[in-house]
Amino acid sequence: MRTLCSSTLIGEFFVIGFAGLVAMKDPDLSSALVWTVCGVAMVLSVLLCGMLSRPGGVQAGWALQIALIVSGFWVPLMFFLGAVFAALWWASIHFGRKIDEAKARWAEQGSSAA
Question: Measuring CA to CA, how many Å separate 60 from each of 1, 30, 45, 76?
């Protein structure tokens, strides 16, 4: 699960950076505000890669997904991209757990056969 979720978070890192570039075109937003918010979100996406195996790591990832969707109020395309990444996040968790369970069963079968 960790590998799939980390891949999703790294993808979000780049999307957040590109969204910051788009948000810079909005005259109502200051560049300091845009890059502070984007910078925090980008750092959080990288830090979450290391927190996935800890309690609350997956929930913090969900919070980031919600924040990406909410960012659509400033960059409308983020409603769509946030929803896409939320779906990817769900799939990473769902299928990652299935893969982890299959690996555990395979390892158990291999150890019992030896």
Answer: 15, 27, 10, 23
